[in-house]
Request: fold
Amino acid sequence: MIRDILVYPDQRLRTVAKPVEKVDDSIRILADDMLETMYDAPGIGLAATQINVHKRVLVIDLSEEQNDPLVFINPEYEVLDGEPEEMQEGCLSIPGYYEKITRVAHVRVKALDRNGEPFEKDLTGLMAVCLQHEVDHLDGKLFVDYLSSLKRGRIRKKLEKQLRQES
Amino acid sequence: MSLPDRRAQAARVIYAVSAQGRSLTQLMPPLLADCDPATRGQLQDWCFGSCRWYHRLEGELKQRMRKPLGKDQGLIKALLILGLYQLRHTRIAPHAAIHETVAAARTLGAPGLTGLVNGILRGADRDGEPTPATDAMTTSHPEWMLGKLKGNYPEQWQSIAQNNNGHPPMTLRVNRRHLTREQALEQLAQEEIDASPCPWAPQGIQLARPVPVDQLPGFFSGHYSVQDEAAQLCTTLLQVEPGQRVLDACAAPGGKTGAILESQPELAELVALDQDASRLEQVQENLDRIGQFATLKAADARDTDSWWDGMPFQRILLDAPCSGTGVMRRHPDIKLLRRETDIKALADLQLELLQQCWRTLATGGRLVYATCSVFPQENSRIISRFVNLQLDAELELIDADWGQDTGYGRQLLPQQNGHDGFFYASLRKNPAAQI
Reply:
């Protein structure tokens, strides 16, 4: 089922998500809904926070064909080397805005898969950037937090205006 | 996380080139700098490939449209060209290409035209590519340009047109101040970069596959420059000698300036001119990287009063502004940007440049005229007009086994897996003729 995506500056995006205690069917359904929502948007990553579910679950699929879904439950990452990676990022909760954000290029993530099995993966490039972006969501952070307050304010005002016009 | 819609970005580029006359050289660097590395190559291929095959794809598009798109739908036309490019020339699964291209129509602010985009691309996928109606469409050249090629090269136009659509090799010039070509080949082999010596340029190395320059050992300390083999031949022809004062009359971006300086460590001076001050910065960057020095002046070479101190040059390289029709595989947008009327205007400019530069050449000195054009109008005819007017100018025979003799200079045509299209003529200044 496609769920609604919260849009900045919705305060619910600032909620810090709680760890998943048990990977059961309800979590698997959540992950499936998140993938469906992400593919529909379309995006390459989505955190549960963005559909107003405050559990530490995120999904990523970088493939053009949308056939390489990855589910990360309770993800934690460590920085493998501090080499910065600058990339233009957008966010499904901040539609229409793309900004250059600097992150680290190489991380090691530990998480549970959709069956509750732990796994570990070294990530580089876009994959590493996307994971950091989504984990930020689970901590209540957004990419606009890395911008100047001037830029952030401008984006917030424009999105608030759009919201007023739609309602 | 989401990424910018790359197809929408590519469509904007194709539109800017085809409808607004902007070049890929201007448009691509800022776009690629912002792009995630994983999709950078794809974005580049979409923009370059759509320009390379534009005329052929546009022909197909016309056949598929019941009525032409409105004048205000240029962006959607560009997107349809990109859609057809993906179907005809990439390995992207057709359903994905179509789906994403339709989504890009929405991003481009044309939600009402998604049905049209979808219908045309689905039809194109189902029916396959139709037989192009004309030679110009088959070879994806503008009519006037192919007409000129046919007229000037009745035997060779097909292979020229075909090679214009190929992918050019990446060719390096080894800096002889740092290492020999043999050492360079060994060094590249150690890095597992597949490379072979160029047949004609003595410092040239051709790579089997392009690599990013930062993977070339010593690139940033000037061991290598990226330069086509044909362009490297300028030093073979100039034969600069110690103590000479040399002019590079249209220097930017500085590839040949660097080649001349590397070829002779004991020049008295090299003066590099370019009309465009911002492009001279590129020359400076190039020289800094290879550790060379030249006197840079922002000036129009024709206006000798503004830049020439009256001291003659023993050697002049005049790499004249031209149609670029010999390097269209590197700059496929040339097929969209050039107009037939440009050629006459360029020829006038080329002759004037030659006449003005000639005044600054020392008696006994040599001027090498070069272009990256394949049209005789910009090449042999400029030289024949010039030597017939200028009594102290003597055409030197270029004794070489590359290219073909035109009677007034040597023409190189773009080669598959080889050098670009190029033209060279070598002129010597005789003591003033007695009339």
About this structure: The two ends of chain A are 24 Å apart (CA to CA). The mean pLDDT of chain A is 94. The interface with chain B takes residues 41-46, 62, 64-65, 87-92, 95, 98, 100, 125-126, 129-130, 133-134 of chain A (CB under 8 Å). The CA atoms of residues 7 and 141 of chain A lie 13 Å apart.
